[in-house]
Amino acid sequence: MAHTQKSKEKLLQRTRRIRGQINAVEAALTKGDDCSIVLHNLSACRGAINSLMAEVLEGHVREHVIDPRKKPTNDQIQAAEEVINIVKSYLK
User: Fold this and answer.
1) Mean pLDDT to the nearest integer, 27-44
2) Which of the four pLDDT bands, split at 50, 70 and 90, describes residue 40?
3) How many C-alpha atoms does 29 have within 13 Å on its Cβ side?
4) Cα 11 from Cα 77, distance rounded (Å)
5) Structural domains for the chain
6) Contact (Cβ atoms closer than 8 angstroms) between residue 28 and residue 38
7) Which of 1, 61, 81, 84 sits at a 20 to 30 Å CA gap from 75?
8) What does the alpha-carbon distance between residue 21 and residue 40 come to, in Å, rounded to a whole number?
9) Closest to 37 (Cα-Cα) out of 21, 50, 48
């Protein structure tokens, strides 16, 4: 089973929150809110999307790059952790 299916509900909840944030951006633009409010809402959207991306990418590395059916070496585990940490820090 794909890792996205294992955490399907959690990922769907994240996408629903992102949809709500996008709707807030649209509402702010429609109402003519101050640009600072629009920017704040956009920042929240970006953060939420980056978090979702990091979570899916981490699952991808753990399930597809490192095959969990085979015992990975310590070097492989360390390399995977480094990639995951680098991407997460980049997406913050």
Assistant:
1) 97
2) very high
3) 9
4) 24
5) 8-91 (1.20.58.1000)
6) yes
7) 1
8) 10
9) 21
What pTM, to 2 d.p., does this model score? Answer: 0.83
How far apart, in whole angstroms, are the C-alpha atoms of residue 89 and residue 39?
22
Asked if residue 57 lies in contact with residue 90, where contact means CB atoms within 8 angstroms, the answer is no
- Residue 29 to residue 59: CA distance in whole angstroms: 35
Q: How far apart are CA 31 and CA 41, in angstroms?
A: 14
Cα 86-21-32 angle, rounded to 5 deg: 125
Side-chain-facing half-sphere of 32: CA atoms under 13 Å: 0
Cα gap 49→17, rounded to integer Å? 10
Residue 90's CB is within 10 A of a number of other CB atoms, namely: 9
Alpha helices in 1-73 (DSSP H): 3-6, 8-31, 35-60
Instruction: Supply φ then ψ for residue 36, to 5 degrees.
Output: -65, -35
